[in-house]
Design a protein that fits this description.
Length: about 220
């Protein structure tokens, strides 16, 4: 369930805008064999099929999301600088390497700046975990990344209608009580990239000091 403020999502009650654009991706990459990225292209270090990602068997032309937060199940975990949206150029074979190429929606520094400025989202269509829950992904608006392939890009996931972003001081009229973050909700600490999971229902006052939750320090709030 989304974080609510007396029956409204935090996003709507605080007047936060929705993202302006979305890119559909087939699946989220969850496991990769060892690879080398040169510029916008990832090539496996050895021949072999890329394998199913989040339960989805990929084909050439599929668009996937690669995030260092979630591609942790294989021989090599990508770095934050590897993160982004990719097209499957080659699925690989017993005598061929798999190849992923950055998708045209996010393959330049200008695209990176646009994603951050507009809140562009990646919407996952399939997958045992990410597709089933309808997760959306976006780069938080406080990201300092400016150079693709060099700067680390954190791309956390969040549930549809969850708050887009909360940061900084709020006017007194926005101070509210009875804000509940449901048990199991997630958010990402933008300083460390750590995914934080609420161990139980958390009732907070947005007008109060909420630093321990990470929200006022630039965390992307996510809710299951």
């Amino acid at each position: 369930m989304p974080i609510t403020v007396t029956g409204q999502t935090v996003e709507s009650s605080l007047g936060l805008s929705a993202a302006s654009a979305a890119v559909a991706v087939r699946a989220v990459v969850t496991s990769l064999a060892a690879f080398t990225r040169t510029g916008n292209v990832i090539i496996a270090d050895a021949a072999g099929v890329i394998g199913a990602q989040d339960g989805v068997t990929l084909v050439v032309g599929d668009v996937v999301l690669l995030s260092n937060l979630y591609a942790t199940g294989g021989a090599e975990t990508p770095t934050a600088a590897d993160s982004g949206i990719y097209t499957v150029t080659n699925v690989g074979a017993v005598d061929d390497d798999f190849i992923l190429t950055r998708h045209g929606s996010l393959d330049s520094d200008a695209d990176l700046a646009l994603w951050i400025a507009t809140g562009t989202e990646a919407v996952v269509k399939s997958g045992t975990v990410n597709g089933a829950k309808g997760w959306h992904f976006r780069i938080p608006p406080n990201s300092t990344a400016t150079t693709l392939n060099t700067d680390g890009i954190v791309i956390p996931r969040y549930a549809p209608n969850a708050p887009r972003y909360m940061s900084g001081a709020m006017p007194a009229w926005q101070s509210v009580t009875n804000v509940r973050i449901a048990s199991g909700s997630e958010w990402v600490d933008q300083d460390t990239g750590a995914v934080i999971v609420a161990p139980s229902d958390l009732d907070i006052n947005i007008g109060a000091a909420i630093g321990p939750l990470g929200i006022d320090t630039g965390a992307e709030a996510i809710s299951t």
